[in-house]
Structure formats: structure tokens, C-alpha cells
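Record type: ASSEMBLY
Status: queued
Input:
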Amino acid sequence: MSSPILEARGLSRHYPGGVRALEGVDLRLGRGEFVAVIGRSGSGKSTLLNIVGGLDAPSEGSVAVNGTLLDFSNRRALVSFRREMVGFVFQQFNLIPSLTARENVEYPLLFNYRPPAERQEKANALLAMVGLGDRASHYPGQLSGGEQQRVAIARALVADSPLILADEPTGNLDSATSEGIFSLLQRLNRERGVTLLVVTHERELASYADRTIEMRDGRVVA
Amino acid sequence: MNSRLIEFFQLAVRQLSRRRFRVILTVAGIAIGVAALVGTVALGEGIRTQAVEAIRTQSDLTLIEALPGVEGNVLQLVTPTRATAAGSLPGVASSAPVVRGTFATKGQTYVQVVGVPADGLDGVLRPTYLRGSGFSPGSDQVVLGAALGEKLQRYEGVRIGDPLVLVRRSYDAQGRPIDEETTVLPVGVMEERGDAYDQVLLMDLDLAVRLGEGDGGYSGILIRAEGPDRVFSVAEGVRGIGLSPRGSFEQIEAVNRMMDMVVIFLGIFAGLSLLVGGLMIASTMITSVYERTREIGIAMAVGASEGDVMEMILAECAVLGVIGGACGDLLGVCFAMVLNILGGPFLASRFGDAFLGLLDTEIALVTWPLLAAGLLLAVGLSLLAGLYPAWKASHLNPVEAIRSGR
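Status: finished
Output:
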């Protein structure tokens, strides 16, 4: 395995009231790896994803990105980590309904202070890559679920983040569309070299990944 | 940075256009508040301007008389030193000391006498003559005010060129009256001035002193200011040398004092409606942040900082404020136009001839600074109202925000 892009050690996440969503999880992602996390709902998959994506803070443990420890108490550092290092793909697609497909793809670059012309060019190229070049000016409400998720994937790629985190990206899609999304993710991994950490509960889809991690009750079991 | 702010504004406009009906209601709230404020202030300023203009045209505004003042319970007399000081105040065109006294005619008409140097008469009072001309220095010639001249002619047959006997009454130790008679020669009658000088008899200062007036120093100093805009600073200067300025400028001061109170009082009520508009914005934005919890969470996940979220929410508030303020200004201008078209005839019919001037002038005065103030107030209030919703949005937990069904 190449030098890790992300290395998490002893991650725990305890919620008030004694809920232990994560319990001593170690995770190592090699550069350019495609890793699937499987497990039942409530096994801590999403919590793990949120923590390594800098959206949530662990109760214990550490996350190192490119060898540098992430300071979860430093909001500014977390913001620039999210801006530059990570792209998120969610189960509910989570596009902004008042923005067109292209504007949704551009959206992260608004916070990266990129000029409009560059943003549009980039967004158009990515939409073409995910097969939606002709849907750029459609609003999310005018797109199918699979199309919306492709827009969301394009959005996750737009800032050239080396790490894409996808939380049940096909949870709301039928099986044929799900296959399409996973093969798109695989293609991105192969062609662009992005590192993928994808949570799913469907074992057959996990076969697209290089490696599978199984979680149960907040622990990695396989 | 600036271009990004512009994009935030563009985004804000789109976000707002999604909730058109609610936005219209909120904007109407702010607009009514601004319109009320603009309308009432315009009315107050219009009436103030009218009143001040009336005083300016109907009276001798640049004439000030400095009278003995009171400073710390001590009477400050008009000494020759003070007369010189008053004459050299900045903005003073000319000045002259005066003495005042009271005489009677043989026909028992009381006559207020003002003694003033002959050059002061021309330099300060600047009289124009209905008949005759001014008095010569050192003579026993006198000039009559318009009203006094007419009264003496009508009841006592006094004419220019005829000697006039003035009686000065004093009392001896036993309280018996002693009358001293003096004969003077009226040489001119002034045109009507519309002030106290219509009622007086003017004579040379030396003559007045010789007749026994002014033994306790001067009664006052007549001052002519260089122009209407210098009057108030000259009056201040007079106060500065311990004397008390009098003149028609005081009416303007009184009008200004009164209108300040009226405008502030009306403005407070109008401001209350603007406050309600601000509360509506706060309520609208809190609802909007609540409804868009997930969107805000997504923005944070894709790299928006707390500051970015605050700026996005505040940009929406600013847009609401600009639209509300502009509509309010427009409404206020319409309100002022209605007042000008309908209000003048109404007031004229209610209060009679004295207000006929209102028919062809503007009683509500809308100025650019007033409109700018209305707009700025609306935007400022909107931003203030948006601070809490924006702060709340920027401190959402992104994980919970994204998970929320909204």
C-alpha cells in the first residue's frame, strides 16, 4: 500500500446518554484506494464518515491527513480541510433546490474564492463527465434520482479534493441506477485517482471497491 | 472578496424569489415604516421651511439689537467698550449705539424716542422715506416711523417741517410732576417696515442724550449683519460679549425649536412602525433559516465557513432592506405629493386667509438626504434584525443540519 492519505487511530464517538456510536476504530486509506464500508444501520458507518470528513469531532482518537493531525478544536482549520481535501456525497443527494445542476456543481467553489468563469467551465466539464452535459440548466426537481446523484458526485469533485466520502450514495436508488452510480465511482477512482470511502449496506455493490471494511456496533469487525 | 459578496447578493435574490409572498409582506412592513418616517419628517420640514421663509420675507432679518444682558445675576450694561466690541464681531456690516426714552406730545400721545447717530441711522436701519428725508447730525431734526407719523398727522395735525413739542415728565421730591418741553423738527416719515420701528421717533444720539436720556450708558446697540446666513453667528457673538441679542431671528429660532420637537415626536411614532418592520424581517429570516437548515448544513459540508453562512443570511436581509427602503421612499414621496395637492387647500380652507400661501407652495418637503436616510435606516435595521438568525445559522451543527428533514 502507498503512503496513507488518511489515517485514523482509536476513533470513538460517545453521545450524551451513553450512546457509543464508534468505539476504538482504526482506519487507513491509501492514496487512490477505493474502500467500501458495510454494516447494518446504526453500526457507526455514517459517524465514521462524518468524523474523517471533518463534520463531526471524535470523543477520542485522532485523524491524520497526509501525515498532519486534524485539529478538531480549530474551526478554521476544519473549514479549509473540508474546502480543499474532501468531497461529500450524501444518500439524499442534498442539492440546493433553487440552483441549477451547473450551479450546484459550482457551489463549493463559491467558498473557495474562484472566479465565475473558471467555475462554470469546470462545472460544465464535470457534468459532461458524469453524462449530464445536456442537463446543466435543469433544476434538481427536474432530474431523476440517479441524475441528481450524478450531479452531487460532480459537486464532490469540483474542488479537486483528493478524498471523496459517500454516505449510502445509492440508498434512495433502484438497483440498476445503483450499479450505474458505483461504476461511475469506480471509473472516477481509476481515471482520476481520487480516494473513495463509500458507505453502503449492499454487499454486492461493495464488490466494486478494492477493499471492504465491515462494521458492527461501532467497531470494525472485518 | 467583493465579487463574492456580489454573488452572495445574487444568491440572496434567488433565495428570496422562492418565497415571494412572504417577502412581499415583509418588504411591505419595512416600506410602510420608512414611508411613515419620510412622510412625517417631510411634512415637519416643509412647515418649518414655510414658517422660516415667511419670517424672512416679512421682517428685517439681518437687524439685531443687542440689549443689556444678565450674566451670573449681574446686569451687563451696554458700555462704549461693548459697543465697539459688538461693531467688530465677524459678520457685522455696521453697528450703532442707541438710547431710548419715552416722551409725550401736547396732545397726550406717548412717543417712544430712539436716539441713534445720523450715520448709524443710514448704515444700520437703512430707512426708506415715505416723505422727507433723514436728520442731520447735531440738529434737532427727527424722523417718524410710518405708524407714528400717520397717527400724529391724523390726530394732531403734525406735518413735516412743522415744529413738534415733546414733553418729558419727571417728578420732584414731593411727587409732583415736572414737565420739560423740547421742540423738535420732523423732517421725514419712514415707509412701513413691519417691525417696532414703525412706532418710534428717531433722533440724533447727541440730541437724545441732551434731552436727558442715556445717562446710564447706552440702551442698546443696533447691529446690521452682512447677510441672513450670518445672523445666527452674529447673535452668538453678541451673547459672547455678555449682551442679549433681540430681533426677528428669534422667531426663526423659536420656530426651529418647536419644529424640532414636532418632528422628533412624530418621528418616534413613525419609527415605531419601522421597528415593527424590523421585527417582521427578524421573524421572516428565523423562519427561513429554520426551513433551510439542511441547505445550510450542505453549504458547511462543501466548505462554507461560519462567516460565509453569516454573510449569505445577512445578504438576504440587506436585499429585503434595500427593497423595503426603496419602496418606502417611493411611498413616502407619494404621501408627500398627496399632502401637497390636498393638504394645502384643506389647511387654507380651515385656517383662513393667513394660510392662503399654502395653496401654491409645498407643505411637505422631501429632500435627497431624507430619502437616503430612509433607505439607510431600512438596510441598517434589516441587518440588525438579521444578526440573530444569521448567527444561529452559522452555529448549526452541520451533521445534525444535514440529517434534519428540512
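Annotation: Helices of chain A lie at 45-52, 75-84, 101-110, 116-129, 145-157, 175-192, 203-206.
Annotation: The beta strands of chain A are 4-15, 19-30, 34-38, 60-65, 68-69, 86-89, 163-167, 195-200, 211-216, 219-220.
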